[in-house]
Structure formats: structure tokens, C-alpha cells
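# step 3/5: fold
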Amino acid sequence: MGSTRLPGKVLKQLAGNTVLGHVVRRVRLAKRLDGICIATTESPGDEPIVAEAERLGVSCWRGSEQDVLDRYFGAAQACDAGVIVRVTSDCPLFDGPLLDEMIAVFMATHGLDYLSNIQVRRFPRGLDAEIFTLAALKRAYRESTQPHEREHVTPYFYQHPELFRLHSFEGKEDLSAHRWTLDTPEDWQFVKVVYATLGANFTTADVLKFLKAQPELAKLNARVEQKKLAQ
């Protein structure tokens, strides 16, 4: 709820649901997942997130606001998860079938510790997903000492390739110029147009086709600068 650029963004109303509700619904399209847990903070300001998780019928874990790595590790343990998929709550255009493809590659590649589609970016920002084992998360939890490693959960993996077996999941077409995440008022305008035009059950292909026909819509948030990873 404490987003600096768009406060309360995950509970904004969008096409008859909250943004968080849409994220959960689209994540549920990934059939290879065993469960969903919302990892939020112990801050009183995030009580509405807990209530929304109950409404959505998903589990919820509360942990540190600043040490997000600690929060993730606690959530993973609470869920007894052997493999964790990380999807951030500001992705209302998320692609569940794409996540299924990523999970399939992860499970079929023996010995992988971490897989993501963000290290070599070819998918739109807003379809981001990371997959890693509990063992790898436990090591990162124990060994991460820098503030940015604790705040952003996964930097310890890809900044220490000598310690982990990593894999980059890359699309055939470079779609990295597209911004489909929700972090600013400009992003909000874009997301609202997509939902108002396509409804709630669109695919990534539907959005791409829509933007090809209406290229000016991508300009709504084209100038938004993504937050840099503090180190």
C-alpha cells in the first residue's frame, strides 16, 4: 500500500476487481502452481492487503517491510514450498501460460537454482517472473548482507553466478520496449485503457494486436523511467 509513486496501487479498482485480484486471477492461469501466497508487511497500513487476500481465497504471510528477503523466506517456509515463483503485485497484465512454460523449463532442467525472464529482457516489463529453489533462497537469506540484496530478494542469485546454476528464459521476439507494469499514474492510464477495451480475459497476443492497431496508446507511459536497483 505504501508505493511511493502510486500509493495504494494494488487495491485500485479495475474492471470490477482490485489490481491485486486481477494479478492473482492471471497467476492462477498457470496450472503448474500448487498454491499462491501474498507476502505483505507487518505495517498497519497493509491490513487491507490481508483482508483482500482472504477475499481472494489465498494465503497471506506478513513480514518485514524493509527486509523483503526475510519476508520471502518466511512465506516460503510457511507454505512448505520446495520451489518458489516470484511475481510482483503490480503486474495486472501478467501471463499465466507464459509462467507455465517457464516452470516447465525449470523443472525439466536438472540442477537449476534460478530461472527468470528478466536477466536478458525480451518480454514486456510487467510479465516478469522468477523461479528458484528453497535451498537457493535459504542460502541467499543466510549470506546476503548488502541492503539492496535484502530489499530486492533475488540480486544475490544473479550477482553470484559462481554459486548458483542460473538460466535465462528468453522469448523469440524482442518485446522489451513495452511497459505493462503499474508503478505510476501514466502506467495506470495505460492499464485502464487495456482493460476497458479488451475486458479482463485477454492474452498477451491480444494486447500486442491491440497496440499494433493503436500504437499511440503505448506512448501513455513510454517516458516512464523504471526505478534503478540501489546498490
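# step 4/5: annotate
Residues 9-182 form a domain with the Spore Coat Polysaccharide Biosynthesis Protein SpsA; Chain A fold (CATH 3.90.550.10).
# step 5/5: archive (pending)
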